[in-house]
Amino acid sequence: MKTLRPFKEFISYIIFMVVLLLLLWWMEFRFLVLQNDYEVYMGFLAVFFLLFGVWLATKISKPKIKTIVIEKEIRIPENEFMLNETERQRRNISKRELEVLALMAQGMSNQEIASKLFVSLNTVKTHSTKLFEKLEVKRRTQAIETAKKLQLLPPTLV
């Protein structure tokens, strides 16, 4: 305390000046608010609605990201592919239907398969329909996947 005594008067002047300055700022603010009350209130209202709009936009347009993990079995051939002849005979799949299935697996369209096998488009469609019935599927992709599982087609690493 002895070290502050010489500065006591100086510190009291500083405190008095700070209080006086705060009083002037408060009076200036009061004067501005009374003179421009409509603009000040509209400004506060605009800032409020701006912040409310930003908050609402983040709530409404927040992306709903959902991660879905799909586990799929990949079969790696250990040796040369051997056709599962017993399954082919059990399902009564003809050699021609097996050719059509192999060309489907290569990604060919019905028209391309027909021109490759020298048959009509209707014949390819008939073979496809019979294949779907025998493999108990509804789509080409399902037929190819089922045939690979049954070892009617060689597995691929795609």
Account of the 3D structure:
It is a single chain. The protein has 158 residues and is mainly α. The chain folds into two domains: 5-60; 85-149, Orthogonal Bundle (Arc Repressor Mutant, subunit A), CATH 1.10.10.10. 65% of the residues lie in helices and 0% in strands. It has helices at residues 8-35, 37-60, 85-90, 95-105, 110-117, 121-135, 140-149. Helix 4 crosses helix 7 (140-149). The protein is rod-shaped and about 110 Å long. It starts with 7 loop residues before the first helix and ends in a 9-residue tail after the last helix. The mean pLDDT is 83.
* Cα Rg: 41 Å
Strand and helix order: HHHHHHH
What's the name of the CATH homologous superfamily of the largest domain?
Answer: Winged helix-like DNA-binding domain superfamily/Winged helix DNA-binding domain
Helix proportion range: 55-70%
Query: What's the β-strand tally?
Result: 0
* Total domain count: 2
What gap, in angstroms, lies between the N and C termini? 84 Å
Q: How much of the residues is beta strand, in percent?
A: under 5%
**Pairing-aware structural class of the strands and helices?**
mainly alpha
If you consult CATH, what is the topology of the largest domain?
Answer: Arc Repressor Mutant, subunit A
Please tell me the CATH architecture of the largest domain by its name: Orthogonal Bundle
Number of helical stretches of at least 4 residues: 7
Q: Return residue spans where pLDDT drops below 50 for at least 5 consecutive residues.
A: none
* Averaged pLDDT: 83
Cα shape: rod-shaped
In CATH, what is the class of the largest domain? Mainly Alpha
The main pleated sheet reads as: none
